[in-house]
Amino acid sequence: MAQNKLLAMILAGGRGTRLEGLTKKVAKPAVAFGGKYRIIDFPLSNCANSGIDIVGVLTQYEPVLLNSYVAQSQRWGLDVQGSGVFVLPPSEKIEGFGLYKGTADAITQNIDFIDLHDPEYVLILSGDHIYKMNYDKLLDTHVQNKADATIAVIEVPIKEASRFGIMNTDENYRIEEFEEKPENPKSNLASMGIYIFTWKTLKKYLQEDDKLDTSSHDFGHDIIPKYLADGRKLIAHPFRGYWKDVGTVNSLWESNMDLIDHAGDLDLSDRTWRIYSEDKGSPAQVIGSSATVKSAYIDKGAIIDGYVEHSVISTDVEVEHEAVVKNSVLLPGAVVGEGASLDYVIVAENVKIAAGVTLTGTEDQILLIDKNVTK
User: Fold this and answer.
1) Confidence band (pLDDT; 50, 70, 90) for 92?
2) Could you tell me which of 6, 227, 232 has the C-alpha nearest to residue 104?
3) 180 is in an annotated binding site
4) Where is this site: Could play a key role in the communication between the regulatory and the substrate sites (predicted)?
5) Dihedral angle at the C-alpha atoms of 26, 96, 123, 50, nearest 10 degrees?
């Protein structure tokens, strides 16, 4: 098969336990976001917009919805000849289906898939971040520096740096040291979990790592430190756009609220860099004569007959007469009954809140409702 310059692999197999009830039956990358999207739409759309033709999506936990969703390559324009989105579960073992042992092992188990497409470079992505990025610029950095690996980094407040993998670099952004969640960070360049590797070199390291019983088979813990120990050239690529790891209930709420409070940072109406998603064919939103809407993000199919303020209202949501929804995120198909009151709440998909119920969280502790609530 003809060589592809750049092939993408999206790691979408994490459990997402910190999203609590939202990931009981749905893989974290398939969790709804921003009215009509799912989290996985962002890396897939970035790939499509960057001209990457071959994308592997590595799934594992609760994969049914995610597998069927990403298999629809036409959503991202990746259904033409020579392109495609490929669902890649863990390899079958003699005793049954296994699991990916770590992020590096997930790639190792798919070496044959990558070799089939014969890329010069491999782009490794996470399936659970909200951002827009042109991966061509990342590749340019990699090629121009003749790097063995290039890692996207973002500046974070130094007081928060201990929550991230931190890259310590020289003045030319050559990585000299990698520290995983350091107690006393030396810099504020946080790894975004977005890597470009020269494939021939990475393949060798993966095969060696696979033989080590002492390895956790992880990029951050094993592969990148081994590259550094061997004197390989690792370059940091600074990213200065919007990026959020939506790994917790609070961070998912915050990122949704950013669509209202910081709309310019994550502009989902930008026609020059579209985020593609499923079109459910829902009708236009309906704002009733008795409704009041203030500073809200409302998607198609929503019916609003109550009071909505500073909230994200997803596809096919209903807010009934005299219901009050403030500072909240209602995921697709949620229903808020007549006279109910919500403040600092996330309501999961298709969950119904009975009439007259009051549910209240705080900005620091968002309340997640993942089951129907009756009086």
Assistant:
1) low
2) 227
3) yes
4) 60
5) -50
